[in-house]
Specification:
single chain; 288 residues; alpha/beta; Alpha-Beta Plaits; Rossmann fold; 9 helices; binds S-adenosylmethionine
């Protein structure tokens, strides 16, 4: 059973709702916009009634019970597909037929189907979309140089980044999340997208002891500033010398401090991109 808290809100608060519930700790956020209308419906799907009621106490609105298996049906209208450069399109396709239709509609692009389930990462959030763009550019660079690369995705959510890496030519990709639901959803998405070999494991990056083999040319860490700051020593450890990491989920008000901590841990910040209130950075582990 799931409990959904819902409330109508002005469209101008959409970012604020996203930020308030980012990370998915309280539940999965669904924002429905109605074309031509200035109101949005904000819904938070929670596993515990207590959590939904606490959100109601804080923000008003209403709480109702929903059956979990109807998730697809009760979710908002499928969000529009997200195109990344000329390489990828991320859409809400769930079934084989929907995947086939999406491929037909987007010839020349790798299609990644990520239905809006119980994990963060449909490609719509600025933090995910920016990492996807950087990942495409990095993959183009590897292909041009004829270099093989592998990818590790820390805080995989829906698995979107690791799946994208494999589609973009990574020899292998692996992702982890401390939320067991995210790991399950990621595995499902790997299979849905024809890359079941992408491994996803339940790992808390703050307690993680990586093996020697867990060391990558490309690492993605869309994890929020405070977690990044504490995880930097581990992040640097799992990067190959000369490898890159995409750091995301950083509020711009926290970016200076967060990226300084990254530099202190041995990273060189090569790019810093701001989209809305979010900062994403590309950083490199210097050789030697
Ligand atoms: C902003 S989402 C990013 C999801 C996906 N990688 C993307 O780019 O859309 C952050 C994810 O990190 C996970 N996470 C947060 N703290 C973590 C930790 N300490 N260890 C592992 N995963 C964590 C959350 O459960 C969530 O799925």
């Amino acid at each position: 059973m799931l409990y959904v808290w819902s409330k109508l809100s002005s469209q101008k608060w959409a970012d604020a709702w996203e930020e308030r519930f980012s990370g998915g700790a309280q539940g999965a956020l669904v924002i429905t916009t109605v074309p031509g209308r200035t109101m949005i419906r904000v819904e938070l799907y929670c596993e515990k009634e207590k959590v939904a009621l606490e959100v109601q106490k804080e923000f008003g609105g209403s709480v109702r019970k929903v059956k979990q298996q109807n998730w697809a049906a009760i979710s908002a209208e499928p969000p529009p597909p997200v195109k990344v450069r000329d390489a990828l399109v991320i859409c809400a396709a769930r079934t084989k037929a929907e995947m086939a239709a999406a491929r037909k509609a987007h010839p020349g692009r790798e299609v990644i189907g990520v239905p809006p389930d119980m994990a963060f990462g449909t490609g719509h959030h600025a933090t995910t979309a920016t990492v996807l763009r950087l990942l495409v550019d990095e993959a183009v660079g590897f292909a041009a140089a004829g270099k093989a690369w592998r990818m590790g995705d820390l805080g995989c959510g829906s698995g979107i980044l690791a799946i994208a890496a494999r589609k973009l030519g990574a020899e292998s990709a692996w992702g982890c999340d401390f939320d067991p639901k995210a790991v399950l959803v990621s595995r499902e998405n790997g299979t849905r997208n024809g890359v079941p070999e992408v491994g996803f494991d339940e790992v808390d990056v703050l307690k993680w002891k990586p093996t020697k083999a867990q060391c990558w040319e490309v690492v993605a860490a869309n994890l929020f500033a405070d977690i990044l700051e504490n995880a930097f020593p581990t992040i640097v450890k799992v990067m190959k010398p000369g490898g890159v990491v995409f750091l995301s989920g950083i509020l711009h008000t926290q970016a200076d401090e967060c990226l300084k901590a990254g530099e202190a841990a041995g990273l060189v910040i090569e790019r810093r991109l701001k989209v809305g209130k979010w900062v994403t950075a590309k950083a490199r582990k210097v050789v030697g």
